[in-house]
Task: inverse folding
């Protein structure tokens, strides 16, 4: 649910929805191999998702970032170097957001409007920087912890056992040997058979 603290200051963990929409999200990329593998699975099931990217990885792997955008997925700002907001002054956090945003605009001609703070930290600096940059802060309601297991079935079950309409699911595309693509292969046909409709976060919010 959105925690509304002012007109410009809303943090979403999930989004109230009438239908069966959910949003799949992938953090910390792009990665030169893993991002493409995930995109291939999403494409096979006609599903669009949201990728919260890190500026330094966009500069290292701009083709991977461009492929995400070219395939119609959404990209959000996950800061430039993934430093925890707890350790940053407000001006330093603003610079982190700006540098990631500039990288996306310069290399991908894309302007993000969603911000996911590293480690999901929401403090006054995060709220102020989001407002200043006209960002909506997006957290998650289902955490797959896909980085801690090498069993695709475990990751898929963490989603299938908890998913509710309006949920935002956290996964990662920057763990080189993770089983996230295989987990998607397992969970997507089941989610679709249950009637769930994976969309981008902006579509879930009704602004995409
Ligand atoms: Zn992250």
Result:
């Amino acid at each position: 649910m959105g925690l509304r603290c002012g007109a410009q200051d809303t943090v979403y963990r999930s989004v109230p929805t009438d239908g069966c929409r959910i949003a799949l999200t992938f953090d910390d990329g792009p990665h030169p191999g893993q991002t493409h593998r995930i995109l291939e699975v999403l494409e096979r099931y006609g599903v669009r998702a949201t990728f919260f990217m890190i500026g330094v990885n966009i500069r290292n792997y701009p083709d991977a970032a461009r492929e995400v955008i070219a395939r119609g997925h959404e990209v959000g700002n996950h800061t430039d170097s993934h430093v925890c907001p707890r350790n940053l002054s407000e001006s330093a956090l603003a610079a982190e957001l700006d540098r990631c945003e500039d990288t996306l605009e310069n290399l991908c001609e894309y302007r993000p409007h969603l911000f996911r703070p590293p480690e999901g930290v929401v403090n006054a600096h995060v709220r102020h920087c989001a407002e200043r940059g006209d960002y909506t802060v997006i957290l998650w309601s289902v955490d797959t912890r896909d980085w801690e297991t090498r069993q695709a079935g475990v990751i898929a079950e963490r989603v299938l056992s908890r998913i509710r309409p309006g949920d935002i699911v956290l996964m990662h595309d920057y763990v080189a040997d993770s089983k996230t693509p295989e987990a998607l292969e397992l969970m997507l046909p089941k989610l679709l058979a249950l009637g769930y409709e994976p969309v981008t976060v902006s579509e879930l919010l009704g602004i995409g």
Notes: The chain has one domain: 2-205. The two ends are 18 Å apart (CA to CA).
